[in-house]
Amino acid sequence: MHDSLTADFDSGRLITTLSDLAEAASAVILPYWRADAEVITKSDDSPVTLADREAEALILARLGDLYPGVPAVAEEACEAGGRPEAAADCFWLIDPLDGTRGFVRGGESFSVNIALVEAGRVVAGAVSAPATGVTWAGDAAGARRRRFGEAWQTIQVRDRPDAAQALVSHSLTDKEAEALSARHGCATWTGMDSSLKFCLIAEGRFDVYPRTGPTSEWDTAAGQAVLEAAGGRVLGPDGQTLAYGKPGFMNGPFVAMGG
After folding, report:
1. Per-residue pLDDT tens for 173-207?
2. What is the domain range of residue 44?
3. Are 52 and 97 within one domain?
4. 12 and 39 belong to one structural domain
């Protein structure tokens, strides 16, 4: 890490900085929510709005000012200019508005994701939910949750109950969701957009989030930081912790789980 970044990480200031920044980006996004914002279709058929672009510009500018020289891999910049060919040893992963489809529908399950990766491992991250005014954060000191403007509360995963509950992507059909949940020992499931699934497992409300389809690394990094700090795990098909800086910054299948 760069000297200023190392100092802030070691002191715990970094996670507060990332959380404050995610909440500032939330303030940029909220005026566009349920306001019939113009939707642009990207080359991969996914939607983007001015909210995505303005939030990302804010995050990149502030991180650049605070920690010059630390590279960033951010969704909209990558979609516009191409994904980097290789990852740096230390870099930011940013999704300024995760769950854009739900955001466009007027749903509440969208988030701002900011994470720090070092040597292939996510070491700190913040996830803010603009619609509900809640931020989750995780680093070496543990996981925590706060409502915007309020004090932090420590969170942790729960011991897996006999009737475990799964969270799955909203893109699945009911039949697919039921089969995937059952495969991971869950009798019930709930569909949800965005990285908030990691955070709800981290605070002990759900138990498993299995994912079979591809995702980009910026979709998962911040949520994984929160979940791991709360005592959970995110594992690939090989049983190893989901790593970062992979070719194309793409994830394969994984399962996120609590206790």
Report:
1. 888 888 889 889 998 999 898 899 999 999 999 99
2. 3-155
3. yes
4. yes
Residues 90 and 151 in one domain: yes
pLDDT interval class at 44 (50, 70, 90): low
Whole-prediction pTM: 0.94
* pLDDT level of residue 88 (50, 70, 90 thresholds): confident
Same domain, 51 and 75: yes
Residue 160 belongs to some domain of the structure: no
Q: If pLDDT is split at 50, 70 and 90, which confidence band does 85 have? A: confident
CATH of the domain at 37: 3.30.540.10
Measured N-to-C along each axis, helices 3-11 and 13-29 cross at an angle, to the nearest 10 degrees, of 100
